[in-house]
Design a protein that fits this description.
Number of domains: 1
Largest sheet: 2 strands, antiparallel
Structural class: alpha+beta
Shape: globular
Strand order of the largest sheet: 1-2
Number of strands: 2
Radius of gyration: 12 Å
Number of helices: 4
Order of helices and strands: EEHHHH
Distance between the termini: 28 Å
Length: 82
């Protein structure tokens, strides 16, 4: 990741669900997470990078985004909520 507009700070457990800890995440991945999962799902089932990678659609998305330049920023179109 490159510091700047392509990086967001992400609460692995959303603030609305009591989360406090954050880490930096590529912006497109951050947006994909929130497009795919509700805040309750993020808190309950996807509160770690490993858990997110275990979701088949997110694993496919991550594989796709890794092929993009580090500064790549766009809105994910193919990652939808269940």
């Amino acid at each position: 990741m490159i510091a700047g507009p392509s990086v967001d700070e992400h609460h692995w457990v959303p603030k609305s669900e009591g989360g406090r800890q954050t880490s930096f995440l590529h912006r497109i991945c951050h947006r994909a997470l929130h497009a795919r999962f509700s805040e309750r799902e993020l808190a309950r089932d996807y509160a770690t990078p490993e858990a997110v990678r275990s979701d088949a659609d997110m694993a496919k998305f991550i594989s796709w985004v890794r092929k993009r330049p580090a500064e790549y920023v766009d809105w994910p179109k193919d990652v939808r909520r269940r």
